[in-house]
Amino acid sequence: MAAPRGWLGTVEAEGISGRQGSSGVEVVFPSDPATPAPLCPHGPTLLFVKVNQGKEETRRFYACSACRDRKDCNFFQWEDEKLSGARLAAREAHNQKCQPPLSRTQCVERYAARHQFQPTFHRFFLPLLLYTVLFRRYVKFIELSLSQRKFCQGCQQLLLPDDWEKHQEHRVVGDISITQLKRPSQLLYPLENKKTNAQYLFTDRSCQFLVDLLSTLGFTRVLCVGTPRLHELIRLKASGEKKSNIKSLLLDIDFRYSQFYMEDSFCHYNMFNHHFFDGKAALEVCRTFLQEDKGEGVIMVTDPPFGGLVEPLAVTFKKLIAMWKEGQSQDNSQKELPIFWIFPYFFEFRIRQFFPSFCMLDYQHFHRTFICVDEAMKYGCMLEVDYDNHALYKHGKTGRKQSPVRIFTNIPPNKIILPSEEGYRFCPLCQRYVSLENQHCEHCNSCTSKGSVPGHQDHDLGQRQILNQLSHPDAPKFTLCEDGRKWNHCFLCKKCVKPSWIHCSICSHCALPDHSCGAPKDGCFICGELDHKRSTCPKIATSKKVNKAVRKQKQRKSNKMKMGTTKGQSMNHTSVTRKKSRRERAHQYLCS
Predict the structure, then answer these.
(1) What Å distances lie between residue 445 and 30, 347, 431, 495, 510, CA to CA?
(2) 71 belongs to a structural domain
(3) How far, rounded to the nearest angstrom, does the alpha carbon of residue 48 sit from its chain's CA centroid?
């Protein structure tokens, strides 16, 4: 999983700080998909709009789908902005300049130019050339002796002897073993994020749990979307002594994996806009993988960045599901592509809005390796810190060790067995495995506790702000949960709430004891209800009509003011011209 994203520059910062003042930034999916979105170095951009409670929508704008921080990708364009040909050409040149030096397309172009292939030839045989170029380079590297296998840490590139001279002033590591080549996520530095300088990857323990679970469920193919370490472990098991029959395909935005994997096991991919950077060839690789054996035995496992917006992710996953369904017969049209979506539990409501068949498993022992870029660059080695033991996320003597990350899946929960040795039991009423602390509520008829997250008490503002950085406006205001204890049932709210919450008669709902009753609610910006967001409000059509009428009225008023100003300026100009003419005639009369 990539590092948590920041926000869309100044506009987004206002959205976050304004969330407490009932404002935010939303993604807009145009009703006319035929109109293509402008491109940035990360593929098609997304259309955003800033919304405020009780106010009309502001001007829409396009921004990067992958980077929430304008320092990482500064693309910005108003929706109705008309660009000149020169600006479009400059943008295209910039996008080409920002492409990674290790992209397969560039490798093919260099190979074709070196061998004087015609453009039509290497475009037609693109998949074969991709395999040939990268396979030859990777095989040459493996055939080198251990002392000759070198890796440039500055350029993050495997070096052949012909490359040594160009990198002699860089920090180069030698003696790269075959084992290291099979675990590229441990060899590569994490991509630097300007806000956090960190990247989060699954620990081996979490990956092992997933592999064992997938094997128990009988899956033979795994589409790994943003889960490089899971992909590595699956491939290691497939090539080990006790060979596994599970295959995997990695879709990830980190282009550097292309030098370690062939095109049949890795696609450079942006999960926020369903963009394959290597074009149709990569798209067909993914399609073939999903539709193999008529789509039987395949599952998608995805671990998006915590700062990723749920809506574009859901749209992308539905496109992958549609791709899988293309290989299904009409008899299986009701079947669903099995999915494991690994995400924080406080996004449950948003995820189930887009995927009603999903349920949240109670497994709480997902841990990530926290990798510090600054320290890694300083010492020239990978410094991996367990997510739970990092200074920002440490627990202390009274802290909790469960993770806020859960598995959301459309697989029936009674088929997923959680390990009893880690503190899980089967609830016969819910027909699923839950943690020992999660007690069944007879009023809700469910085991309602969400478990715990790293941190101290609910009023620990510092920890709350840290975890809020991993969230976005789609999420409710996040507060730290109790230590996995049973939630209390509130008969007024008709649901179970956190043990530290109490019912407020002024707000008419449960909240923290020290909450501000006058603070704006995180409900719908149009009607104020708490059970849905603005994008799904039943009154949104009426609101748009009112906003359109208000905008037209403002436009007419603005046009009148402009016409009045222009008319006044014209009259003033005529008056000045007449006075000037009189002075000139008087001057001529006196001179004569």
Answers:
(1) 40, 22, 11, 10, 20
(2) yes
(3) 15
Phi/psi of residue 497, nearest 5 degrees: -130, 170
Write down the pLDDT at residue 421.
Answer: 86
Residue 5: the pLDDT is 45
Helix axes 280-291, 126-143, angle to 10 degrees: 80
Q: How far apart are the first and last CA of the chain?
A: 91
Token pair in block for residue 330: 């009409």
What is the residue range of 43's domain? 9-97
The DSSP result for 28-66, as a single string, is: E--S-TTSPPPEETTEE-EEEEEEETTS-----EEE-SS
> Does residue 30 form part of some domain?
yes
Residues 6+ apart with CB under 8 A from 482: 452, 458, 498, 499, 500
The rounded distance, in Å, linking the Cα atoms of 132 and 140 is 12
**Which SS3 state, helix, strand or coil, does residue 583 take?**
helix
As beta bridge partners, residue 189 has none
Element (H or E) spanning 580, and its range?
A: helix 540-591
How many CB atoms lie under 10 A from the CB of residue 120? Answer: 8
- Locus of tokens 């006058």: 518
CA distance 92 to 97: 9
Q: Which of 79, 97, 115 is the last residue of a domain?
A: 97
Spell out where 105-169 has E strands. Answer: 150-152, 157-159
C-alpha to C-alpha distance for 269 and 283, rounded to whole angstroms: 9
Among 97, 114, 147, the domain-final residue is: 97
For residue 546, give every residue at least 6 positions away whose Cβ sits within 8 Å of its Cβ, in sequence order, or none.
Answer: 56
In a domain, 427, yes or no: no
Tally of structural domains, the chain: 2
Query: What pLDDT score was predicted for residue 22?
Result: 55
Q: Are 424 and 418 contacting, i.e. CB atoms less than 8 angstroms apart?
A: yes
Asked if residue 70 belongs to a domain, the reply is yes
Q: Which residues contact 415 (CB under 8 A, 6 or more apart)?
A: 217
Ramachandran area for residue 316 (φ above 0: left; ψ -120 to 50: alpha; else beta): alpha
204-259: pLDDT as tens digits: 888 889 999 999 999 999 999 999 999 999 998 887 767 778 999 999 998 888 88
